Q: What sequence folds into this?
């Protein structure tokens, strides 16, 4: 059970926790008279791939160094405020459509992903990337804490992907992993890319990535 399996199970747990509440809440229409047709839980999570696709061609591709995606500006050490504003705007817009319950997963240890480790000669985690992730999570937590005051009835759990990864990485064997640094693929630290000729390791269940 690796990174994506853990994320999926965390999401499923959040949905189960909110499921009964969502069903119970579907009988109460929102103030703008838009009736909720189906009880639902909206899940927001980070992505290690989709945000800031600087390698794709095209002027309309979201990029990490342009509004409104990605890091602030190159060379900045501040956690991104654009993502925070996008979270706020998206939740508010959905709220106006009727939803009242959201499940949100914060950003994990971005500096410990193999794609970050491979940039280090020793394969160590990137402290700067982890600090950026932690800074974003602090800003996200603060944002969410203030939303119910202006969006009555809003309910959300915030899953701590960052904390889960830190716990697993501190004692991998306790969680059944023998490798939490490299991906189960080809190339240094498994960061050789997904190619037709790529092979995966035999003990992939023991790899976090």
A:
């Amino acid at each position: 059970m690796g990174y994506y399996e853990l994320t999926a199970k965390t999401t499923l747990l959040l949905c189960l926790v909110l499921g009964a509440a969502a069903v119970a809440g579907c009988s109460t229409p929102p103030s703008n008279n838009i009736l909720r047709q189906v009880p639902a839980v909206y899940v927001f999570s980070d992505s290690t791939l989709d945000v800031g696709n600087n390698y794709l061609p095209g002027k309309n591709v979201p990029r990490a160094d342009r509004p409104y995606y990605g890091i602030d500006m190159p060379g900045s050490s501040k956690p991104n405020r654009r993502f925070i504003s996008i979270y706020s705007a998206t939740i508010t817009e959905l709220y106006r459509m009727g939803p009242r319950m959201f499940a949100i997963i914060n950003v994990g240890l971005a500096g410990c992903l193999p794609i970050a480790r491979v940039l280090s000669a020793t394969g160590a985690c990137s402290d700067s990337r982890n600090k950026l992730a932690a800074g974003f999570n602090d800003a996200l937590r603060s944002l969410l804490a203030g939303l119910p005051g202006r969006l009555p009835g809003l309910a959300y759990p915030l899953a701590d992907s960052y904390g889960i990864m830190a716990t697993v990485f501190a004692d991998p064997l306790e969680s059944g992993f023998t490798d939490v640094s490299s991906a189960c693929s080809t190339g240094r630290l498994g960061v050789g890319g997904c190619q037709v000729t790529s092979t995966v390791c035999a003990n992939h269940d023991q790899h976090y990535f």
Remarks:
- The mean pLDDT is 75.
- The chain has one domain: 3-176.
